[in-house]
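Recall from the previous chapter that SMILES is a line notation for molecules. Here it describes 2-acetamido-2-deoxy-beta-D-glucopyranose.
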Amino acid sequence: MVELSRSLVYLGCLLVSSTLQIQTVRAAKDVVSQLKLYPQKTMIDATWELQEPTGEVIRYLVSWIPDGVGVATASCYVNSSATSTSACDVYPTLDSCTLYTVTVQPKALGGSTQINTGTPASAAAYTLQDVPPAGSPPEVSSVASRSVTLTWTKPATKCEVVNYTVVYSGQVMWGNHATLEVNSAYSKTTTINIAGLTPYSNYSFSVVAATAAGKGEPSLPTYCVTQEDDDNFRKNLNNDSTSTSSFPPSEPNIGLIVGMLVGISLFLMVLGLLIYFRRQIGASCCKEAPAKHIESPSNKIERDTAGNIPLADQRYTQMSSDAGSQYEIPLLTPPPQLKICFMYILY
Ligand SMILES: *[C@@H]1O[C@H](CO)[C@@H](O)[C@H](O)[C@H]1NC(C)=O
Ligand SMILES: *[C@@H]1O[C@H](CO)[C@@H](O)[C@H](O)[C@H]1NC(C)=O
Ligand SMILES: *[C@@H]1O[C@H](CO)[C@@H](O)[C@H](O)[C@H]1NC(C)=O
Ligand SMILES: *[C@@H]1O[C@H](CO)[C@@H](O)[C@H](O)[C@H]1NC(C)=O
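With both inputs in hand, we obtain:
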């Protein structure tokens, strides 16, 4: 009747070796025995038998206690008509790659409440490898014109991450704002340096972790704009066959505007100088001619009296006599230089 035995059974599971400990403790009635565990990625199913039933057991309390925690993080009730977790009232979810102790406790009615009865059974097993959950976005620890260094943290999984894939894409922020092809880089650690990037482009970086079970979901992206390059950058960009327009797009327009402004300014300066000198000549003509006339009226008169007057002198004499002011003289018969004088004034 009294049988005390312990046996350890090692089950080789698909990817993780899990330990199944079947424990049969001393009991007289309502003994849970033949407890078998069936580990999955997020659940450890169990089946058992009830030895020496008294008929008092109304249901079983099945609990899953993670290794090192000590208290059950998941549990369910199984009607006594069934002896499997497939009949759980609530089907729990467990962490993958985690060692759990599974306990099946028979329950009986003790008055108005339920009490433990009979002899429970326990066994332990690891949940299987699962794909990792999405991690947090990577952090940019350094950025250059054609490379970045990223770091990130391991996603919340107890499974071993075998490698990380950084998926990146970008949009050029100059020229035709081309969308850059989606690329990936691999790393076995939680940091990577990605080279071969296009300068001054808005990149997005997402990290995908992989366990032996496969790749998980990508993290949210981190955006990062690569720096502009040195002086050779523009030359190289313009020489790049994939770049159909120059950098930056507004540069040619600015150059054109500046060029036009400089050209117009130079033209006006030259014109101004030309007009200035012409005005000087014109002014000297305008002023000196009457001045001469005024300075040497005696000569004119003398010549006038002598009857040896040239046509020009005759004109001056006539004008000075007709108009009192010497400045009105050119208005009556403006010399060609004076037109430029007026132009200069208008300008
Ligand atoms: C347990 O099983 C009995 C009959 O076997 C049934 O009447 C009862 O509703 C079941 N309880 C639950 C919670 O499934
Ligand atoms: C980069 O692209 C993202 C997504 O389109 C956008 O939210 C972000 O503002 C961009 N960054 C810059 C600097 O343009
Ligand atoms: C990363 O790990 C996954 C899962 O084992 C594998 O399929 C993939 O080939 C690995 N990638 C690299 C680059 O090693
Ligand atoms: C343009 O690029 C090609 C190859 O990338 C190089 O051989 C050539 O010297 C470049 N020309 C100029 C003007 O930079």
